C-alpha cells in the first residue's frame, strides 16, 4: 500500500531544518532563474520569456506529495515544481529558453516549445515505454489556456481503471491504481469551458485528481472580478463540495500562497483525499504574487496600481518564507533551536545566484558551441567558392558582421552561395552542396521529426491481413460485423476500453457495441456525460499511461467540440516532445451522408488541416472499419476512424477471422477497374460513385473507381497516379465543401504524385455545396453530390473532348 505525505512526517529537528532550508534554497534558485531568464530575453539572447516567480512556495508544497508514478498536467508557470521533482535543472531551463535542439540538454521538447513548457520522457529511444511507476511524470505542457485540463481527467481516471484492469506489462504504468494526477491552472483560465467540463466530469467519475489554481488576481491585465460570476473561485465552486456519504463532488481547500506551513498542510490533506479516497480536490491558492508581471512582452506596472505593487512586494512568498524561518524557534531538551540566522539565509541567497549564473553560462556555451561548430564546418567551404561569383564575398562579409549568429543565418549564407553559383560544376561547389545536404538532414530531424510515430509500431508497419470468407460466412448488418469484431478486440486486448455517450448500457446508438458492457463490465465499456472535449481528454490521458482507449464521439459533427484538443494537444504530443511521449488513442466516430444540418456534416477539411499528427481513416463500410481498429491497436499512432452512419443496417459478409484481419493505412483500393477516367472518393460517397460508374458504362465511359480509405497517410505507394497514367483523366468526388478535402486529395495526386503529367483533360472536383446539408433525403440530394451530378459532370468532360461521340445533355 502506498503511503501519503501525512503518514511519513515523523522526522528529527535536524531533518526538519534541512528540509526547510533546502526548500528555501530551491525557491531562491527558481526565483533567480526567473530574474536572469528575463534579462536574457531583454538583452536579445532569447526570443520570449514567461516565468513562475511568485509561485515558488505552493509548488514546493505540491512537490512534497508528488510520488513516483504520479502525473502532472499543467501550464507554463510551474518551474519550481519541475525543479523540485527533478524534471528540470538550471541548465535545461536555460537550454529551453535558448531553443537548444539537443534532447540531452533540453529533454522536455528539444527546443520545440518556448520556455516554461515542461515534460518528462515516457519513452525509450526506440519508442517503447519506460517504467512510469519508477519516475515522476509530467505530461507535456501546452500553452492554450485550460487546454491541459481534459487530458488531466484521463491521467487521473487511468489510476481508477488500473485498480481492476491488469494486463501483461501493466506494472510499468501503475501500482494498483495508487497514483494521483496533479493539474495546475491560472485563476483567470478557470473562466474557460475546459476547466468546468473537466472538473464536472472528475466529480462525477470520482477520480484521484488534485487541481491547483494559482490565483494572482489577474488574467494578464484583466482583474479576476471581470473573469467570472464570482471573484472567489472557491466560493463559486462551493456547490461542487462533496457531501458526507455521497460519491459525488470534490474537496475544496483554500490557502495563501505565502503561508508555508499552511501550504504543507493543505497539500498533505489534498493528497490524503485523492490517494486514499480517490476524490478530486481543488486547491485554491490565493494571494499569489507575480513579481515580474505576466511575461517579457510587457510590464505589469501598466495595470497594477501603487498599492497593489507595494502589497505584492510585502507578501512575496519568498520574503514571507524568510520571515517565517527567522521567527521560528522551538525548545528541545531545554535548549532553544532556530532554523537559520539572517546571515545564513543571505548566504543561501548569494549561493543561489551563483548556481543560476553558472547553469546559465553552461547552457549558453553549449548552445553556442552547436552554432560555432556548424559555422566552422560550413564557412571554409563557402570561402572556397567565393571566386566563382563576386557576390559571395559580399554574402560572407554580411555574415561576419552579424553580432549574433543563428542557424538560419548559416543556412541563408549557404543557400545564397549555391544560388549564386548555379550552373557551375566544380569540386568545391559539390563539396558545399554535399555539406548542405548533410546539415539540412540534421536540422530536418531537429525541427520536423516525430509528427507521426517513428517506432517499429508505427501504423505503416502493421502488415495487411485480408478478411477470410468461407461458405459459412453470413450476410449480416454492418453493425454486427463491427460489434463482433469489438468482442474479439476486448477479449484479445485487456488494456482496451471504450467510452462515450450511450456507448455502454445500450451498446451505442447504432448497436455497434451491443452486449459489450454486459460481457466486459462498466469499467471497460462505459457511458459518459454529454461532454465531447473531456471524452477526448479521457482518451489522451489514458493512452499516455499505457491503456488503449477508444474514445467515442457520437457523430462526426460533434468532433468540432474536440478539435481544439485534437489540434493543440493530441496531434502534437510526439512532435512537441520529439518522440518523448505518445498517446495512441483511437477516436471512434460516425458520419458522412445522412440527413440534416447537425448529423450529416463532413468537416473533413478542418480535421485534416488542424490535426496533422493524427491518422484520419475513412472506411467505406463496417468491415473496413473493423479492420482499421485491428490495425490501430497494433500501432502507437493516434487515429480518428469515421464509420459510415448509413451503413449499420446494410448487409455485409462477415469475415471468419474477426479481430485478426487488418486494413493497411495509406493504401487505396481499386473497387472497379476502368480505362477512360479515374474517380477518387471515400466513405459513404463511394456507394454513390459506384452507382454513377455503372451509369457511365451505359453511356460508353469506362470509369475506374478508387476508394482512398486513408486520408492521412494518403496513398503511400502512389497507386492513384498509376491509374491516371492509364485513364488520362481525374475526378475527385467528395461530400466536404468546395476546396475542402477534394483540394487536399487533388494536391496529393497532382503535386506529390505528379499525376498532372498524364492528364488529357482538366482535373475535376465534385463536392458538396458550401452550406450544411438540408434535412431528409431530398436535402441530401440537393446538398451533396448525387448520382445525377456525377454522371452529368463526368459526361461533360467527355463531351468537351469529343462532342460527336458524347453530345451535350443540356
TrEMBL record:
<dbReference type="InterPro" id="IPR033248">
    <property type="entry name" value="Transketolase_C"/>
</dbReference>
<dbReference type="InterPro" id="IPR009014">
    <property type="entry name" value="Transketo_C/PFOR_II"/>
</dbReference>
<dbReference type="Pfam" id="PF02779">
    <property type="entry name" value="Transket_pyr"/>
</dbReference>
<protein>
    <submittedName>
        <fullName>Transketolase</fullName>
    </submittedName>
</protein>
<comment type="function">
    <text>E1 component of the 2-oxoglutarate dehydrogenase (OGDH) complex which catalyzes the decarboxylation of 2-oxoglutarate, the first step in the conversion of 2-oxoglutarate to succinyl-CoA and CO(2).</text>
</comment>
<feature type="domain" description="Transketolase-like pyrimidine-binding">
    <location>
        <begin position="476"/>
        <end position="650"/>
    </location>
</feature>
<dbReference type="Pfam" id="PF02780">
    <property type="entry name" value="Transketolase_C"/>
</dbReference>
<dbReference type="InterPro" id="IPR001017">
    <property type="entry name" value="DH_E1"/>
</dbReference>
<dbReference type="InterPro" id="IPR005475">
    <property type="entry name" value="Transketolase-like_Pyr-bd"/>
</dbReference>
<keyword id="KW-0786">Thiamine pyrophosphate</keyword>
<keyword id="KW-0560">Oxidoreductase</keyword>
<dbReference type="GO" id="GO:0016624">
    <property type="term" value="F:oxidoreductase activity, acting on the aldehyde or oxo group of donors, disulfide as acceptor"/>
</dbReference>
<dbReference type="InterPro" id="IPR029061">
    <property type="entry name" value="THDP-binding"/>
</dbReference>
<dbReference type="Pfam" id="PF00676">
    <property type="entry name" value="E1_dh"/>
</dbReference>
Amino acid at each position: 500500500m502506498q503511503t501519503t505525505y501525512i503518514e511519513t512526517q515523523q522526522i528529527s529537528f535536524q531533518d526538519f531544518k534541512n528540509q526547510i532550508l533546502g526548500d528555501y534554497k530551491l525557491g531562491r534558485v527558481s526565483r533567480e532563474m526567473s530574474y536572469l531568464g528575463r534579462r536574457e530575453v531583454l538583452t536579445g539572447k532569447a526570443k520570449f520569456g514567461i516565468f513562475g516567480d511568485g509561485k515558488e512556495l505552493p509548488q514546493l508544497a505540491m512537490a512534497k506529495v508528488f510520488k513516483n508514478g504520479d502525473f502532472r498536467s499543467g501550464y507554463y508557470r510551474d518551474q519550481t515544481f519541475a525543479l523540485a521533482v527533478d524534471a528540470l535543472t538550471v541548465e535545461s531551463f536555460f537550454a529551453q529558453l535558448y531553443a537548444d535542439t539537443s534532447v540531452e540538454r533540453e529533454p522536455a521538447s528539444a527546443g520545440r516549445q518556448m520556455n516554461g513548457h515542461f515534460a518528462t520522457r515516457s519513452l525509450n529511444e526506440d519508442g517503447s515505454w519506460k517504467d512510469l511507476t519508477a519516475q515522476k511524470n509530467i505530461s507535456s505542457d501546452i500553452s492554450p489556456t485550460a487546454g491541459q485540463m481534459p487530458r488531466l481527467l484521463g491521467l487521473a481516471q487511468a489510476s481508477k481503471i488500473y485498480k481492476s484492469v491488469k494486463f501483461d506489462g501493466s506494472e510499468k504504468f501503475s501500482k494498483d491504481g495508487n497514483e494521483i494526477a496533479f493539474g495546475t491552472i491560472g485563476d483567470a483560465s478557470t473562466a474557460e469551458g475546459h476547466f468546468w467540463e473537466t472538473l464536472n466530469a472528475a466529480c462525477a467519475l470520482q477520480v484521484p485528481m488534485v487541481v491547483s489554481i494559482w490565483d494572482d488576481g489577474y488574467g494578464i491585465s484583466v482583474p479576476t472580478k471581470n473573469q467570472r460570476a464570482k471573484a472567489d473561485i472557491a466560493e463559486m465552486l462551493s456547490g461542487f463540495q462533496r457531501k458526507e456519504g455521497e460519491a459525488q463532488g470534490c474537496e475544496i481547500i483554500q490557502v495563501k500562497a505565502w503561508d508555508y506551513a499552511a501550504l504543507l498542510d493543505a497539500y498533505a490533506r489534498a493528497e490524503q483525499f485523492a490517494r486514499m479516497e480517490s476524490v478530486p480536490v481543488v486547491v485554491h491558492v490565493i494571494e499569489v504574487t507575480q513579481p515580474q508581471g505576466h511575461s517579457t512582452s510587457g510590464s505589469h506596472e501598466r495595470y497594477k496600481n501603487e498599492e497593489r505593487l507595494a502589497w505584492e512586494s510585502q507578501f512575496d512568498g519568498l520574503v514571507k518564507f524568510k520571515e517565517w524561518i527567522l521567527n521560528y524557534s522551538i525548545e528541545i531538551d531545554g535548549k532553544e533551536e532556530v532554523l537559520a540566522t539572517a546571515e545564513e539565509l543571505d548566504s543561501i541567497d548569494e549561493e543561489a545566484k551563483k548556481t543560476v549564473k553558472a547553469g546559465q553560462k553552461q547552457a549558453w556555451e553549449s548552445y553556442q558551441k552547436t552554432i560555432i561548430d556548424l559555422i566552422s564546418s560550413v564557412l571554409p567551404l563557402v570561402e572556397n567558392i567565393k571566386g566563382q561569383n563576386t557576390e559571395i564575398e559580399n554574402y560572407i562579409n554580411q555574415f561576419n558582421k552579424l553580432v549574433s549568429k543563428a542557424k538560419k543565418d548559416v543556412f541563408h549564407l549557404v543557400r545564397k552561395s549555391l544560388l549564386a553559383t548555379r550552373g557551375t560544376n566544380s569540386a568545391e561547389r559539390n563539396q558545399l552542396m554535399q555539406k548542405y545536404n548533410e546539415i539540412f538532414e540534421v536540422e530536418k530531424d531537429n525541427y520536423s521529426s516525430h509528427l507521426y510515430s517513428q517506432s517499429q509500431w508505427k501504423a505503416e508497419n502493421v502488415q495487411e491481413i485480408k478478411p477470410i470468407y468461407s461458405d459459412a460466412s453470413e450476410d449480416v448488418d454492418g453493425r454486427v460485423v463491427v460489434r463482433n469484431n469489438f468482442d474479439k478486440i476486448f477479449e484479445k486486448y485487456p488494456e482496451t476500453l471504450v467510452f462515450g455517450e450511450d456507448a455502454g448500457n445500450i451498446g451505442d446508438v447504432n448497436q455497434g457495441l451491443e452486449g459489450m458492457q454486459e460481457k466486459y463490465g462498466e469499467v471497460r465499456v462505459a457511458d459518459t456525460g454529454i461532454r465531447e472535449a473531456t471524452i477526448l481528454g479521457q482518451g489522451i490521458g489514458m493512452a499516455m499511461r499505457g491503456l488503449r482507449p477508444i474514445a467515442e464521439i457520437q457523430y462526426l459533427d460533434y468532433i468540432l467540440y474536440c478539435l481544439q484538443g485534437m489540434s493543440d494537444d493530441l496531434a502534437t504530443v510526439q512532435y512537441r516532445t520529439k518522440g518523448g511521449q505518445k498517446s495512441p488513442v483511437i477516436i471512434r466516430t460516425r458520419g458522412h451522408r445522412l440527413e440534416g444540418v447537425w448529423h450529416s456534416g463532413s468537416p473533413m477539411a478542418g480535421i485534416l488541416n488542424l490535426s496533422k499528427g493524427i491518422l484520419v481513416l475513412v472506411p467505406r463500410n463496417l468491415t473496413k472499419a473493423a479492420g482499421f481498429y485491428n490495425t490501430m491497436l497494433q500501432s502507437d499512432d493516434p487515429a480518428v476512424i469515421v464509420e459510415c452512419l448509413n451503413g449499420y443496417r446494410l448487409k455485409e459478409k462477415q469475415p471468419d477471422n474477426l479481430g485478426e484481419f487488418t486494413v493497411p493505412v495509406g493504401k487505396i483500393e481499386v473497387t472497379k477497374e476502368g480505362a477512360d477516367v479515374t474517380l477518387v472518393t471515400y466513405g459513404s460517397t463511394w456507394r454513390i460513385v459506384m452507382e454513377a460508374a455503372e451509369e457511365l458504362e451505359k453511356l460508353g465511359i469506362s470509369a475506374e473507381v478508387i476508394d482512398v480509405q486513408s486520408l492521412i497517410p494518403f496513398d503511400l505507394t502512389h497507386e492513384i497516379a498509376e491509374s491516371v497514367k492509364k485513364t488520362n483523366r481525374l475526378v475527385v468526388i467528395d461530400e466536404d465543401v468546395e476546396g475542402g478535402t477534394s483540394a487536399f486529395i487533388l494536391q496529393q495526386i497532382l503535386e506529390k504524385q505528379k499525376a498532372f503529367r498524364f492528364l488529357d483533360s482538366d482535373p475535376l472536383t465534385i463536392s458538396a455545396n458550401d452550406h450544411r446539408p438540408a434535412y431528409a433525403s431530398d436535402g441530401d440530394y440537393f446538398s451533396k453530390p448525387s448520382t445525377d451530378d456525377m454522371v452529368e459532370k463526368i459526361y461533360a468532360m467527355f463531351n468537351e473532348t469529343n462532342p460527336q461521340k458524347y453530345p451535350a445533355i443540356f
